[in-house]
Specification:
Blueprint lengths: L1 H6 L4 H8 L4 E6 L5 H12 L2 E4 H14 L7 H9 L3 E6 L2 E6 L2 E2 L7 H11 L2 H14 L5 E5 L2 H5 L5 E6 L2 H14 L6 H17 L12 E4 L5 H12 L4
Helix pairs in contact: 3-11, 4-6, 4-7, 6-10, 9-10
Bound molecules: 2'-deoxycytidine-5'-monophosphate.
Length: 241
């Protein structure tokens, strides 16, 4: 009996971990509204996997640019998709995107990629392949994924869905500063025009357009700091975990 008891001994911390059920968290929203920051911070706090689905569309776009893929040629697109492997690795607390083994975190954030990514993301052939990979990432739950169709298409059964929004001036400013921090000086007006254009294409495309899922909770973070938005969403997760 004594032996049996020690065999089944669990520390209070372990018991706590067992108690916590893992959920799926879907975060959607317009371009540069801070959803990736929120998703990354949330995943870190909850010790969940974080997947930036936008990075996957950007990586495909980068491959298409590098290999001069004709966006009107289904056969070319199909064979290009067969040659693309996207991975994420965490290094020094940063979530980094790799395309066929090459680190492309900076390249996928370039203005050239931003200018073309919505067009690529509107191609159903591309979406089919990426959505399948995204669903596989979430098979075991314990995941936070951000994008445009996560709550509607990728994880329609996610326990928690957040739709993040912020006004266009705030979003443009954030994106402008992000680019500047990366050493890329792009005029503010060009940044803003790109966001408006991408929002329009992303929301009006035929295949899985950006829209708020019926059961999503809206979070307007125009006047919230990253810390405040994280606190607000952590409170919500308490209802499920
Ligand atoms: O989140 P982001 O701005 O890095 O995304 C880049 C583009 O990818 C965006 O313009 C729309 C597209 N996208 C999409 O169509 N579906 C997703 N789940 C994520 C991104």
């Amino acid at each position: 009996m004594q032996k049996l008891q020690s065999f089944f001994y669990f520390s209070p911390l372990m018991l706590n971990l067992f108690k916590k059920r893992k959920i799926t968290i879907a975060i959607d929203g317009h371009s540069s509204c801070g959803k990736s920051t929120l998703a990354r911070d949330l995943a870190k706090k909850l010790r969940y996997i974080y997947v930036d689905s936008g990075a996957m569309y950007r990586a495909v776009t980068l491959y298409f640019i590098w290999n001069e893929i004709d966006l009107t040629n289904e056969i070319e697109i199909g064979s290009a998709l067969n040659n693309i492997k996207i991975q994420f690795k965490t290094k020094r607390r940063k979530n980094l995107c790799y395309l066929n083994g090459e680190l492309v975190e900076d390249d996928i954030r370039s203005q050239e990629v931003s200018d073309m990514v919505s067009e690529v993301a509107a191609i159903s052939q591309v979406r089919r392949v990426l959505v399948e990979q995204q669903k596989a990432f979430g098979e075991k739950k314990g995941i936070v994924m951000d994008g445009r169709d996560i709550g509607t298409v990728v994880f329609p059964n996610a326990e928690l869905k957040i739709f993040v929004t912020a006004n266009i001036e705030v979003r443009s400013h954030r994106r402008y500063l992000e680019l500047k921090t990366r050493g890329k000086e792009v005029p503010f007006d060009r940044v803003k025009a790109n966001l408006i254009k991408r929002d329009t294409i992303d929301s009006t495309r035929d295949d899985s357009p950006l829209r708020q899922a019926d059961d999503a909770i809206v979070l307007d973070n125009s006047e919230l700091s990253t810390k405040q938005q994280l606190q607000a969403v952590l409170k919500l997760t308490k209802m499920y975990i």
